[in-house]
Amino acid sequence: MVEFAMHNAWLIPLLPAIAFAAIALLLWPWPKASSTFSILMILTSFVLALAVVYGVYTQPELIEKSMVYTTRWFSMPGLRIDVGIMLDPTSAMMLWVVTLVALLVQIYSLGYMEGDPGFSSFYAYLSLFAASMLGLVLSSNLLQMFVFWELVGLCSYLLIGFWFYKDSAREAAKKAFITTRVGDFGLLIGLLSLQLIFGTLNIPELAEKAVNFQNYVSAETLTLVLVVLFLGPIGKSGQFPLHVWLPDAMEGPTPVSALIHAATMVVAGVYLVGRILFLFKEVPAAMHVVAIIGGFTAFFAATIALTQTEMKRILAYSTVSQLGYMMLALGAASLTASMFHLMTHAYFKALMFLGAGSVLHALHGKAHIHEMGGLYKKMPWTTWTFVIGALAIAGIPPLAGFWSKDEILLVVKEAAHEAPGIYTPLFWLALITAFLTAFYMFRQVFTAFFGPEKPENHPHEAPWNMRLPLIILAFFSIVGGWVGLPWLEKGFGYWVRMGEFHHAEPDYVLMGVSVLLALAGIYLAYLMYLKKAIDPDKVAEKFGVLYKLSYHKYYIDEIYLWFNQMVVDGMGKILYWVDLYIVDGIVNGIGAITRGSGAVLRYTTTGNLQTYALVIFMVIVIITLYFAFGDASFASLFLGGGK
Amino acid sequence: MFNGEVIAFAIVAFLLIFSALGVVFMRNIVHSVLFLAATFVLMAVTYLMLDAGFLAGIQLVVYAGAVSIMVVFAVMLTKRSDLHETNLFNSLTIPGAIISLLVFLGLSWVVVKTPWNIAERPLVDPMAINKIADLMFGKFVIPFEVVAVLLLVALIGAIILALEVKPQK
Amino acid sequence: MITLAHYMLLSAVLFAIGLFGVLSKKNAITVLVSTEIMLNAVNLNLIAINKYIGVDGFYGQLMAIFVIAVAAAEVGVGLGIIISMYRNKETISLDEFNFLKW
């Protein structure tokens, strides 16, 4: 079984793809059959993924040397593209995360999407989404990865705009697609440059050549290429300044948000950077860019999340913030910390989105946390699992988020020893973000689930098929981080790593500080929103401008809109004028010249035969004279012949 | 200097140019055609002087005989009773004269300046007609056939062009 | 002594006279006839060159025969056209036949 799964890992993305095709072509008239088939397929993938994880676990040699099966896609002189699967602890871990979340989301959707007219197509899209992401995870070639990357983008477009009769959903879907496209352009250029520089896009070959990259390209050029390539992950993983699509993406059905935010869409960018981290590692400047973008995004998104009132929007900004953490870890050259946080974040973020979906389901679409309150009495399961998720993201030991966040803080601190100018500010930003995270998550928890009940709400607990995924994810949110306990001899860091394994000593001071910050954030939220000891409105007034900036998301959307209207439309107007008067003018001018000269020259056509004969002989005489007295060799150019 | 050949050439050349000018300058088309016939005959004489007897014969038969008669027929078919002032100059006389003169000067310049590769002995052969026949029906038989077809086509074309067009009802 | 150049100059004179007739006469028949004079001038050239330069055969005379044949065909067709023109416009003055213009 394990052997079979290891050698046939391509089945893992194929099975959901089959589910997609079967539903789209055959099963769509029967919603029950569609969902059952889709869940069966993803369940099989999940089992296979488990087998792969076990297989990788029993073969530690895969850490150093990935297991790669490739086959020729196409080749031409100077270009050879292989596609294949690449198994190592990193991709095995991703397989586990993606199949787990996809499976749970599909089970959850049984309850959440019940009775929706597009039930079957929803499952088709979910299956395709899972298939694309699994394909991306397994890719051994960057071009292959790019194909799946775009498929992921397409699926997110389809799913965000799933309720296409809503204007906002359509707009959000377009926004997601177009914004990520901006980044994808950079990614494509980066990939092409890599192909030009190294002559290959196979990840193992690139890894071999990256060590001696000076033989191929200067460090400056490679830095530029990598920064351009990094635009793709910026767009896909919602990093500043292309994060604007991610909060709007919650217009899709909530299970989709869970899937996008936890396991599929946004982590693709982190995963891609992690896959080619060996290239970034060679040029520190590119690493610094990644780290600065990541650290800044983490802080930036957290400050926005402080003041938002829509439940899913808060979660969305927290996703942006946590992705910033992952990028920051990558920027500190730690694949371990980044992937570890990716995994734990997938647990608790999926948990919280599904919990939010449960609330929305119960309250029939009320999205603002101030309209909620006291839900814990009617919805105990949802409430307590959500609280577990919030504790996990806030970083309270021994929940999953604590260990991974601690790992990131640790690696950034270590990196600060190397380059203090870059990483020291980022380290402090990350610490503050930890505090902010705890605060805004518990602001949401205390406002929505505790406090006085709202009499106009009649919430009800979710059905079993929505509760089950919550419970499973809550379980993983608690224990999921224990694979990376700093005291373990061969923990997460032994398996998922890049380069030499070095066992970092647990830093108890840092742990204590981060726990204290998290507790302080929670306590402040408790004071402000449950105890009402501090009036939030007064605080908001006090911070006046800052509050407004945060509430309006730093006006980024408005800036983009302004940019579009002023610069893009203005350029359009100028170019329209140019087209109308200059391009058309040239074309029309040529036509007018032809017409005008024709109007004059037509009088030379007298119709008199003898005039024509006269002209012919006149020309003959002129040519003869030229031959007689001019440069004969020049004339022969026109007349042919000559010596 | 003034041997018989030179005298004969001078007389023939003078008459030839005179009659050719007559063709162009006569104001009566019938006189023009008469000068034309004279030109053709004198041309045949020139051919004889060049020891091309066969060509002289053809010239007499085809040009002086057939073409002249055809032109006379054309004049008859296209002219009314009064034949005075039927062969006038058009408005291009002066430019035409200048161009013609320039063409003549150009040709003369070429003739004088070109180093002609004159053979030591002129090609004179009493049995020339046999040689021409050999060439015509041997090496050049395909152009010969093509010219035959061309003549047939011209014959049919001339008939169709000159045919009376019946007014349609 | 009469040489090739004499015959060629005679031919040039005849050619120029024919050209003058073509360019400056109104009557279509005269124009056609003038082209015949030009063709004859060419024939004269061919035959003279055949005599004074052609050392290996009577190609010049043969070519002259072809020219005569083509000229005869041309005269036939040309006169047919002239008759047709006359039938349409009751004149053969080329000044009247200038309607192939703007």
UniProtKB/TrEMBL annotation, chain A:
Alphabetized, the UniProt keywords read: Membrane, Transmembrane, Transmembrane helix
Entry's transmembrane regions: 12-30, 37-57, 93-110, 122-140, 146-165, 185-204, 216-235, 256-280, 286-307, 314-340, 384-403, 423-442, 468-488, 508-529, 611-629
NADH:quinone oxidoreductase/Mrp antiporter transmembrane domain boundaries? 139-415
Tell me, what is one Gene Ontology molecular-function annotation carried by this entry?
A: NADH dehydrogenase activity
Ranges for domain NADH-Ubiquinone oxidoreductase (complex I) chain 5 N-terminal? 73-123
* Membrane disposition: Multi-pass membrane protein
NCBIfam families referenced in this protein's UniProt entry, alphabetically: NDH_I_L, PRK06590.1
Q: What is this protein called?
A: NADH-quinone oxidoreductase subunit L
Which organism is this protein's natural source?
Carboxydothermus islandicus
UniProtKB/TrEMBL annotation, chain B:
**Compartmental location:** Cell membrane
TM region positions: 6-26, 33-50, 56-77, 89-112, 140-163
- One GO cellular component term noted in the UniProt record for this chain: plasma membrane
Reaction(s) catalysed by this chain's protein? a quinone + NADH + 5 H(+)(in) = a quinol + NAD(+) + 4 H(+)(out)
The membrane-topology field of this record reads:
Multi-pass membrane protein
Q: Which UniProt keywords apply?
A: Cell membrane, Membrane, NAD, Quinone, Transmembrane, Transmembrane helix
Q: Which GO terms describe its molecular function?
A: NADH dehydrogenase (ubiquinone) activity; quinone binding
Q: Which InterPro entries match?
A: NADH_UbQ/plastoQ_OxRdtase_su6, Nuo/plastoQ_OxRdtase_6_NuoJ
**EC number annotated for this UniProt entry:** 7.1.1.-
- Gene3D superfamilies, alphabetized: NADH-ubiquinone/plastoquinone oxidoreductase chain 6, subunit NuoJ
Q: Which PANTHER family match?
A: NADH-UBIQUINONE OXIDOREDUCTASE CHAIN 6
According to its UniProt entry, the function of this protein is described as: NDH-1 shuttles electrons from NADH, via FMN and iron-sulfur (Fe-S) centers, to quinones in the respiratory chain. Couples the redox reaction to proton translocation (for every two electrons transferred, four hydrogen ions are translocated across the cytoplasmic membrane), and thus conserves the redox energy in a proton gradient.
Give the family per the record.
Belongs to the complex I subunit 6 family.
What is the name listed in the Swiss-Prot or TrEMBL entry for this protein? Answer: NADH-quinone oxidoreductase subunit J
- This protein's species is Carboxydothermus islandicus
The upper taxonomy is: Bacteria, Bacillati, Bacillota, Clostridia, Thermoanaerobacterales
Automatic annotation (TrEMBL), chain C:
Q: Which reaction does this chain catalyze?
A: a quinone + NADH + 5 H(+)(in) = a quinol + NAD(+) + 4 H(+)(out)
Q: Any stretches that span the bilayer, and where are they?
A: 62-83
**Bilayer disposition of the protein:** Multi-pass membrane protein
**Keyword Signal in annotation:** no
Gene3D superfamilies per record: 1.10.287.3510
Database matches in InterPro entries? NADH_UbQ_OxRdtase_chain4L/K, NUOK/Mnh_C1-like
User: In which broad location class does this protein mainly occur, judging by the first location in its UniProt entry?
Assistant: membrane
* Coiled-coil ranges from the UniProt annotation: none
Q: Which GO terms describe its molecular function?
A: NADH dehydrogenase (quinone) (non-electrogenic) activity; quinone binding
Localisation: Cell membrane; Membrane
A single Pfam family it belongs to is Oxidored_q2
GO BP term, pick one: ATP synthesis coupled electron transport
EC number per UniProt: 7.1.1.-
Q: Which UniProt keywords apply?
A: Cell membrane, Membrane, NAD, Quinone, Translocase, Transmembrane, Transmembrane helix, Transport
Domain of life the protein comes from:
Bacteria
The signal peptide here is: none
Q: Which GO terms describe its cellular component?
A: NADH dehydrogenase complex; plasma membrane
Can you tell me which family this protein belongs to? Belongs to the complex I subunit 4L family.
The role this protein plays is:
NDH-1 shuttles electrons from NADH, via FMN and iron-sulfur (Fe-S) centers, to quinones in the respiratory chain. The immediate electron acceptor for the enzyme in this species is believed to be a menaquinone. Couples the redox reaction to proton translocation (for every two electrons transferred, four hydrogen ions are translocated across the cytoplasmic membrane), and thus conserves the redox energy in a proton gradient.
Quaternary structure, per UniProt, is: NDH-1 is composed of 14 different subunits. Subunits NuoA, H, J, K, L, M, N constitute the membrane sector of the complex.
Q: What is this protein called?
A: NADH-quinone oxidoreductase subunit K
Q: Which organism is it from?
A: Carboxydothermus islandicus
